[in-house]
């Protein structure tokens, strides 16, 4: 009787089918992988990022898009592009300028986000660099808005 019970349990399928939408991938249900590891040797690479880091990455990409749009408006108003690489792209084609600007910014920000826990020096990690870029882009957008007001005045 005992052997038959064990056989019956082995025949049952214990695993359930994987659903189309997995709560672990959506960030609804947290798994075992978190930023804090048992050993603090080197950087921690994780599957889920903090909302502050994701918000910073998205904000930087959106500010880069806004920067490209404002740059085109400033150039249309008589301004000049001081960045030699971007000026060459603008002369060639405006679409290439926008694509290159967004591609370079996005790739750089994604690489910094992946390595956000890498310590660059004592107390300074890559995520701090991301926050500095966010502040720099916000300042640049403010400066460009002032330039547009001066051009239109």
Task: Explain what you see.
Helix 3 runs antiparallel to helix 5 (94-114), helix 3 runs parallel beside helix 6 (126-152) and helix 4 (84-92) crosses helix 5 (94-114). The protein has one domain (44-152). The termini are far apart. The radius of gyration is 25 Å and the shape is elongated. It has helices spanning 2-11, 23-26, 51-76, 84-92, 94-114, 126-152, and strands at 119-121, 124-125. The longest helix has 27 residues, at 126-152. It is mostly helical and 153 residues long. The protein contains six helices and two strands, in the order αααααββα. The mean pLDDT is 81. Strands 1-2 form a two-stranded antiparallel sheet.
Features of the shown structure:
153 residues, mainly alpha, two-stranded antiparallel sheet, elongated
Lay out the secondary structure.
Layout: H1 2-11, H2 23-26, H3 51-76, H4 84-92, H5 94-114, E1 119-121, E2 124-125, H6 126-152
Antiparallel strand pairs: 1-2
């Amino acid at each position: 009787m005992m052997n038959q019970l064990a056989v019956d349990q082995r025949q049952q399928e214990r695993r359930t089918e994987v659903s189309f939408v997995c709560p672990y991938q959506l960030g609804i249900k947290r798994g075992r992988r978190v930023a804090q590891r048992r050993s603090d040797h080197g950087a921690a690479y994780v599957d889920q990022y903090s909302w502050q880091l994701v918000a910073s990455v998205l904000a930087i990409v959106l500010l880069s898009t806004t920067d490209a749009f404002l740059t085109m408006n400033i150039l249309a108003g008589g301004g000049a592009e001081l960045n030699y690489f971007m000026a060459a792209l603008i002369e060639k084609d405006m679409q290439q300028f926008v694509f290159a600007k967004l591609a370079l910014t996005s790739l750089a920000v994604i690489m910094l986000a992946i390595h956000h826990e890498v310590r660059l020096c004592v107390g300074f990690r890559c995520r701090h660099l991301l926050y500095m870029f966010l502040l720099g882009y916000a300042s640049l957008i403010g400066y460009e808005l002032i330039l547009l007001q001066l051009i239109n005045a």
